[in-house]
Design goal:
single chain, about 220 residues, alpha/beta, about 50% helix, globular, nucleotide-binding, CMP kinase activity, Cytidylate kinase
Length: about 220
């Protein structure tokens, strides 16, 4: 394969984007970049440091003191925030509750897009997020847009939280959080969540992880040279 091939995966929260992206990257021998983790890590920094997302100067200052890096361990992608491993903490509800507001900030999005585009300049990558196929890599040769029934998405996310020891968040809390994030993601002014015209729709409401991987691999092999 030629260099610098990008597979872009966009879609709603808790649709299994990262699960598919990781599996695709492993099968293709590509690098997996979790763009959502980047916004979550920024959100975590804002929470810890009481950064007012509506204060442009505070946001600029904070972004100047955030260093994000990815590393691979046991075929999993991990993210560090200023050298600290935060892959688990960024998935907790405090971050989930605030990430849509932070990621909607123009300054935050533009900085993250710059970093994501740099990552894709010289490597074959699979990247998932909200605006990968529309804003970050609009020329990506393969794009997917993932969706699923909201109730199924909430149940998946709830089980994930339970498996990580969260006994305080209810299924109703998760459902409401996803509904809020869907609204925020699709209505924000800066790079809203939309399907690229040439994106392949992948509704995995009734698909297993292996079935969606097989579907995606088939589509990738049809599209890539």
């Amino acid at each position: 394969m030629r260099k610098n091939l990008v597979v872009a995966i966009d879609g709603y929260s808790s649709c299994g984007k990262s699960t598919l992206a990781k599996a695709l990257a492993k099968k293709l021998g590509f690098i997996y970049i979790d763009s959502g983790a980047m916004y979550r890590a920024v959100t975590l920094y804002f929470i810890r440091n009481h950064v007012n997302v509506n204060d442009p100067e505070a946001v600029d200052y904070a972004l100047g003191h955030i260093e994000l890096n990815f590393h691979s361990q046991d075929y999993q992608s991990h993210i560090t925030l200023n050298g600290e491993e935060v892959s688990e903490e960024i998935r907790q509800m405090p971050v989930s509750t605030s990430v849509s507001e932070v990621s909607a900030n123009k300054k935050v999005r533009r900085e993250m897009v710059k970093q994501q585009q740099r990552m894709g300049k010289s490597k074959n990558i699979v990247m998932d997020g909200r605006d990968i196929g529309t804003t970050v890599f609009p020329d990506a040769p393969v794009k997917f847009f993932m969706t699923a029934d909201p109730k199924i998405r909430a149940e998946r996310r709830f089980k994930e939280l339970q498996s990580k020891g969260d006994t305080t968040t209810s299924l109703e809390d998760v459902f409401e959080n996803l509904a809020h994030r869907d609204y925020a993601d699709t209505t924000r002014k800066e790079s809203p969540l939309t399907r690229a015209d040439d994106a392949i729709i992948l509704d995995n409401t009734d698909l297993t992880e292996s079935e969606q991987l097989d579907f995606a691999l088939d589509m990738v092999h049809q599209q890539l040279p």
